[in-house]
Amino acid sequence: MDTCTLCPRMCGVNRAAGEKGYCGMDATIRAARAALHMWEEPCISGTRGSGAVFFSGCSLRCIFCQNFEIAEGNCAKEISGERLSEIFLELQEQGAANINLVTAAHYVPAVIESLKKAKAQGMDLPVIYNSSGYERVETVQMLEEVVDVWLPDFKYMDSKLAFAYSRAKDYPEVARAAIREMMKAAGTCAYDEDGYIQKGVIVRHLILPGHTKNSIAVLDELYGTYGDDLTISLMNQYTPLPQVRNIPDLNRRVTKREYEKVLDHALDLGITQGFFQEGGTAKESFIPLFDYEGL
């Protein structure tokens, strides 16, 4: 933390001394919510719920972020590493199917330590690393001893789009390398007798309005590289929030025609291992309240 290079931004700032990196955070753990989350893929949430801990700050900070309030650090409660260990145990006691680390890249050393403490005290749930996909391979390797399931996004194959919306022109190659390492660590998905995932990689892709070509390129890349060894989750839940009201394309929902175009391409490719969302585009109900519950 004194010369932070946890994420691909590689700021090199002294977060231990209170400096803030691109993620907007210093070394103090900050979070917005820790509770059972019912809106993940069926094999993650099921009927029990996923024990999701939403960390504040983000190293990618997409302009359209669906969790913009916490990504920007506007909703952030300080917690200690010891308290984080207790939260993991409390979520297990509540019946969570897993521990779900949401955007934790900039806290990786502290999260690893807290997970080890919780496991030493009886926490035995699968651990899910829920990520933007913008990860250093070296950071992924640090996590391999404590993470069972990798849940990265693959947002962009178009580097110009990645720069315009996330200021990360290198996103395509960074995400490809990170997912390659995740697949190496976890391999194909494995489930328990109730259908809950125990290990593996699920890559999410959020379709953006007006950018079906990018989505099709993402599917081509993932399926062309991994075939059915990789599980793909195709999402139409994009919700235009106030920060994008003046940005063309992003100030509307994905149309039914756009979603069907991408889904048809997925089916034409032959993808059989994956998830897609039925019905119309999502409402804001998919975005939880960041009210510090469970912290």
TrEMBL record:
<dbReference type="GO" id="GO:0051536">
    <property type="term" value="F:iron-sulfur cluster binding"/>
</dbReference>
<dbReference type="GO" id="GO:0003824">
    <property type="term" value="F:catalytic activity"/>
</dbReference>
<feature type="binding site">
    <location>
        <position position="65"/>
    </location>
    <ligand>
        <name>[4Fe-4S] cluster</name>
    </ligand>
</feature>
<keyword id="KW-0479">Metal-binding</keyword>
<dbReference type="Pfam" id="PF04055">
    <property type="entry name" value="Radical_SAM"/>
</dbReference>
<keyword id="KW-0411">Iron-sulfur</keyword>
<dbReference type="InterPro" id="IPR016431">
    <property type="entry name" value="Pyrv-formate_lyase-activ_prd"/>
</dbReference>
<dbReference type="InterPro" id="IPR007197">
    <property type="entry name" value="rSAM"/>
</dbReference>
<dbReference type="GO" id="GO:0046872">
    <property type="term" value="F:metal ion binding"/>
</dbReference>
<dbReference type="InterPro" id="IPR058240">
    <property type="entry name" value="rSAM_sf"/>
</dbReference>
<feature type="binding site">
    <location>
        <position position="62"/>
    </location>
    <ligand>
        <name>[4Fe-4S] cluster</name>
    </ligand>
</feature>
<dbReference type="InterPro" id="IPR040085">
    <property type="entry name" value="MJ0674-like"/>
</dbReference>
<feature type="binding site">
    <location>
        <position position="58"/>
    </location>
    <ligand>
        <name>[4Fe-4S] cluster</name>
    </ligand>
</feature>
<keyword id="KW-0949">S-adenosyl-L-methionine</keyword>
<protein>
    <submittedName>
        <fullName>Radical SAM protein</fullName>
    </submittedName>
</protein>
<dbReference type="InterPro" id="IPR013785">
    <property type="entry name" value="Aldolase_TIM"/>
</dbReference>
<keyword id="KW-0408">Iron</keyword>
<feature type="domain" description="Radical SAM core">
    <location>
        <begin position="54"/>
        <end position="215"/>
    </location>
</feature>
